[in-house]
Amino acid sequence: MRLKTIRTPLAGTAALLAAALMSTAAGAPARAEEPEPVSGDIVTAPGLELRGRFAEERYDVWANVLGLKPHGGEETLVVYCIDIHTPLDTESPYTEGDWEESEVANLEEVRWVLFNGFPNVGAEELIETSGGEVNPDWSDEEVAEVAYAGTQAAVWHFTDAWDLLADNPVKGGNSGEDEAVLAVYEHLTEDTGRVPDPSEFTVDLEGEESATFVDGRFGPYTIRSNAGPVELTAEGGRLETEGGDAVESRKDGEEFWIVLDEDTNEITVKGTAAYDLPVGRVFLATTDEALSDDAVNPMTVGDSQKLILAQPREGEVPAEWRFALDAPPEASAPPKPQLPVTGSTLSVAFAAGLALLVGGMTVIALGKRRKASDH
């Protein structure tokens, strides 16, 4: 048995960058792709007026229901105010910016609030989970207003150090809004957890140094993914479970085996993990000119309220592994044969070439031999 390496031709800048990355990035897990920034126009709907305070000072504020209608899109996204003292600019478009640029505090807590608040949790479910009650006379819009107000109050608690009053927190809230909004607020501000950042999502493959060739197939290989199930496809062969069933998707920790097509010893395995991009994306006011392709400065932030996206968007972690696989020359050959000429043992019975798609280009990882003393 011999080890082979797949060499993928790269041109120009991509080739130079791939060569530079080879010694450090090869074999690294695939990571989430950055989504395109979103811009859009603000829409508003009436909400509830909330009673609260900063420190010992009373400060009442309207929790109007805010939305962002993306340019070129149909769906209106639910957003929340994270800048309670600044008026909302309804005349200018908004565009996505960096959290650091927004200079708003407590990102982790705010993201957790949004992930567990409305609309990621349905309005009625959120109120009841929080220990509140839904008035049967409320319309669907009124139930949503209550859930939104409780979530907005919790956001302001972390971004602006604003506290909702426990006594009559909703002005005119005498139909149960007081208790329901307060219940949602307290539920979302107590014992907050953590929502992963997209940069932490990865897809990786284990087994390239331990898989063997048995009964006409190579494996096992193990998928590692913290971004959810990984959809798998193969060119040059097929993927199987331990029992021989076809593999289309694998969860973290699940295994698969490779069966090569006839007359080939190369296979490309592609994986894609789709996930909901966590909430917590900040939007800042800008101008139409700044959004144009010729803009020198892509974003100008004026004296306008900052907003944060409440709904997750879909993202993907794409990965690609390319192998050259050599089966033993005889069916009866053991999976890890000795090489009498060199006295070495192959630590793998298959691939010498592992390529991982990183940032849109293929980076080659060469197969390795281990000395006999390593076993």
UniProtKB/TrEMBL annotation:
Highest taxon of the lineage: Bacteria
Q: Which InterPro entries does its entry note?
A: LPXTG_anchor (IPR019931), TAT_signal (IPR006311), Thioester_dom (IPR013552), TQXA_dom (IPR023849)
Q: Which residues form the signal peptide?
A: 1-25
* Record-annotated membrane-spanning stretches: 346-367
Q: Which positions fall inside the Gram-positive cocci surface proteins LPxTG domain?
A: 339-375
Q: Which residues form a coiled coil?
A: none
Keyword entries, A-Z: Cell wall, Membrane, Peptidoglycan-anchor, Secreted, Signal, Transmembrane, Transmembrane helix
Family annotation (Gene3D superfamilies): 1.10.150.480
The record's NCBIfam families line, in alphabetical order, gives: LPXTG_anchor, TQXA_dom
Q: What is this protein called?
A: Cys-Gln thioester bond-forming surface protein
Q: Which organism is it from?
A: Glycomyces tritici
Recite the lineage of the species: Bacteria, Bacillati, Actinomycetota, Actinomycetes, Glycomycetales
